[in-house]
Amino acid sequence: MECDRGVILKLIKEALTQEDFNDLVFADFRAIYEQFTDGQILADRIRKLIDYAEKHRQIPKLLKLINQKNPTVYQELQSQLSLPIIPSLSNLREQLTSDTQLVDELRKIIDQKDESFGQCLKQVYQDFLLDVNDEPELDREINNLDDIVWELEDRTEQSIFLEFLPRLIAYLSIYQPRISQAISNNLQQWTRENMVRFKVDKSEFNNALKQFKQTYKQRSGKVYLIIAIKENRSYPNFWQISGWLTNDEIMINPHRDAISLKNQYSGIDIDNVPAPEKGYTLVETKEIVGNFIKQIAVKIERLEQLVIEFFLPSSLLSWEVDKWELEPLTQIYLESVHEIRIRSLDRLSLKYQLHREKWNKKWIFVQKCRNPIEQFLTSYCHCNINTLVGQLQDEKMLGVKLRSPLNSGHEGIASALYYSGTPLAIWLRRDPLSGDCETEINRLLQDPLLQLPARVFQKRCQSEQHISLIWDNPNRLIPNYQLQ
Questions:
Q1: Which helix (H) or strand (E) holds 468?
Q2: Count of other CB atoms within 10 angstroms of residue 160
Q3: CA distance 325 to 92
Q4: Which parts of the sequence belong to the vWA-MoxR associated protein middle region domain (predicted)?
Q5: What is the C-alpha separation between 398 and 417, in angstroms, rounded?
Q6: Is 484 inside any structural domain?
Q7: Do residue 100 and residue 61 come from a single domain?
Q8: Which of 150, 252, 131, 132 shows the shortest CA–CA distance to 140?
């Protein structure tokens, strides 16, 4: 949608009061609002907003919002300034609504409250926004197909046909073949029939579809052993442990449950029944972990795809779980075979529930982080915790890296992470053989940040390294766990 800058400037000045302008920017362009400074004149703020809207292809959205604020002035200036008629629908929306068969199928699923398809839509749209680097739209709530189509009307046809649609088709084919059979074929057929009209190259679409299928297939190959360990309050030096097998498909599908793993010490031989709240020694706890892995080995084809995530309370973050033996007396460590990640069990407790929104927001930035070193706060092991919490309030500060080995004080560092919603932390437990801790950690903090666990795994395999990594993905928690 083309529209002259001078036209938009005139429209804003005549249609909006200063209060209306500030309210509009605060509600719908928060990233720009936060850049406003005290004493800044209105004209400068308007220019900053227009610059942002042009860069992020948000001019149609801006015009619609102005029309909503003052439709009378908008209509008066419409012919004079050659403004588009509002509300308008993009060609994609018109074509989707005219394609009765496709839309009827999609709407039928949505009307039946098919949570699986709804989750697919949300995930694909978020992936799309991450790739196009559109921060302001990431927090917008998307409920159904209508919401997504409405959002897409501000996008170029090329972006929709080569970024969103092939991504959706690929995602459905990998994660939801049941839905894919009913919808994906129709969606694909409609797309191919309309590519000529929108001047989309067929080979580019096919290449995009192939690429997204490969990406989602690689992602779906990961399986996770989720282990929760907590202290038994009745018996010192005894622990309670539970384990589940899951993958990304299960985590996004409300109709599927993670597989609860058996505990050889529990005396229970019933599938999907967790071990009772019983205490185990550290030796028994390690053996149970090994037994969990053996159970998984008969359930999946490629055990090397297994990632182990330990949910530990803050008091146990000093445990070197990556150095636990795969089997007793083998001297083969878990870290040599599997990616090991530490998760924060205490973060799920009620007192940190108010900080969940910050945690989710920071994780969005983790997914698209392009300069990890600058987005990790460098700290000392025994720093002032209040100061650390304050420094981590910056939503772009995604993690903590420690300048020296951490041997004590884990609870304080953990509390700072929880209260600030910070999902990541990395430290060495011993001084490196050469260099210093910060240099070694910086070598791991490369683009993209999502590959950090894999880089830590490779580093552990290559040399005798004692690396601890907290990697708290808010979208993958203990199965059926709810904040109470």
A1: strand 467-471
A2: 21
A3: 56
A4: 119-229
A5: 10
A6: no
A7: no
A8: 150
Residue 198, token pair as written in the block: 């929108």
| C-beta of residue 83 within 8 angstroms of C-beta of residue 74 | yes
Give the end of a domain, one of 194, 220, 246. 220
pLDDT digit string (tens) for the chain, length 484 residues: 456 677 788 889 889 998 899 889 888 887 788 788 877 888 888 888 888 887 777 787 888 888 888 888 888 777 665 655 544 434 444 544 443 444 454 455 445 445 667 677 777 888 888 776 655 455 555 555 666 666 666 677 777 778 888 888 888 887 776 665 656 676 777 777 777 777 778 888 888 888 888 888 777 678 999 999 999 888 888 999 999 999 877 766 655 678 899 887 765 444 444 444 578 999 999 999 999 999 999 888 778 889 999 999 999 999 999 999 988 877 889 999 999 999 999 999 888 988 999 999 999 889 888 789 999 999 887 778 899 999 999 988 999 999 888 888 889 999 999 999 999 999 999 888 778 899 999 999 987 898 899 999 989 887 777 899 999 999 888 876 644 3
Number of separate domains in the chain: 3
75 and 192 part of one domain: no
Answer yes or no: are the C-beta atoms of 50 and 8 closer than 8 Å: yes
Decide if 476 is inside a domain: no
The closest alpha carbon to 152, from 165, 141, 139, 143, belongs to 165
Please tell me whether residues 15 and 70 are part of one structural domain. yes
Q: Is 269 found in the same domain as 167? A: no
First to last CA, the chain: 47
Residue 150, domain extent: 91-220
Last residue of a domain, one of 62, 81, 100: 81
On whether residue 423 sits in a domain, the answer given is yes
Dist CA 62 CA 188 (whole Å): 32
The answer to pTM > 0.85 is no
Is 360 within the bounds of a domain?
A: yes
